[in-house]
Design brief:
Layout: E1 2-7, E2 10-16, E3 22-28, H1 37-52, H2 58-61, H3 65-75, H4 80-98, H5 108-119, H6 124-143, H7 172-180, H8 187-190, H9 199-208, H10 212-215, E4 223-224, E5 229-232, E6 235-240, E7 243-248, E8 256-259, H11 262-275, H12 296-310, H13 320-333, H14 338-345, H15 350-357, H16 362-379, H17 390-405
Antiparallel strand pairs: 1-2, 2-3, 4-5, 5-8, 6-7
Amino acid sequence: MASLRFRSGGWDLRYRERDGSERTERFRGGSQRRPPESALDRKAEVEMELRRGRYVPRERREVRFADYYAPWAAARQISASRRYTDDQRAEKHVLPHWGDWPICDIRPSDIDDWVAQLARSMGPQSVRACYGLLRGPLRRAVKDRIIDDPCIDIALPKLPSLRKNFDDVLTAQEVDRLVAAIVDPDPRYAALKTNGRYEALVFMGAWLGPRWNEAIGLRVCDINPLRKEVTFGRVVVNQNGSTTFMEAMSKTEDSRTVPVPAPVMDRLLAHLEEYRPHATREDFVFTSNRGTNVLRGTFSRDVLRKAVVRAGLEGRRVTWLTLRHTAASLMFDAGLTIFEVQQRLGHRSPTLTAEIYTHLMRERFEEGRAKLESYMSTSRNARDGCKADQATLSAVARRWERQERK
């Protein structure tokens, strides 16, 4: 399958690829009677790879990472906003480091060192996103049998816990105070029609919990006053700084219709009447006073932060995500099940909802325990109860509680 021949002070390794094309590799050294060890090793390697159908030309193994990244990135089926963000990360963090590396020379230890370097200057989410842009082309090369997988047991920074507790949300009374504080009482602004422009947006966010891009992508046709329903996710507005992308479907690649309490629907209709009286069915419900899409950074800086101070909530970090978490908390307080909350928030599964909001369900846990105790007391035979007296059990419980605290 492969042959070695001495020519002009060196040895030529000749073989045919599976498609029939002939290739020659040149090795210097050795004598006229015996080839160098490198030529013999390469001959054995080529013959084995050809026999197993795993032969890859050397120039493909040694292709630059940047040259392999380009076709991989072009073939990705992702949204325009995701592509924009990933292109920025690749140009700043991935390609400057790995662009000139032959993909066959990238080792797991090299990736570990790079990840550790990134972790010193950026957060865990960003580090993992950059690592994904490195792993994608390398995994493609592995599938093409060009290289062995170097992405083995890479130590990535731990993500922060998703769980939320009552310190991360607002109460219903605090929501009302925050919404009322959207209006600036300063006489210079009191007469402006745009002074309370975002009251309905904040109120809706705190009770329905849409994502930001779903909220500002809400159109007039997505509101059904007769059925008291709102559909989120048909159109979303993704933003990266001042760059805006209009896209179909939400983060979970679908849309969802949620029932709307009457106070929220009344706020939405009042907003349309005052700020969007001439809007068509396809127009957005929430816009700036210039008719453009609301920018998240501007909204947080000029609306939410100032309203937090006026509402007497200084020291509380209130963002749009806080309003989304608040909506989940209020839904649980109202008695909605975890499956109902999952559907309203647009999570893929109730498992994710439970993982994030377990600590907000403490009252529901206590309510369930009380109900089960009541059922047990009426359905079981009293003679089958625990033989230890209550005083003894209380003492045991206190002793174990003290030990647990230690």
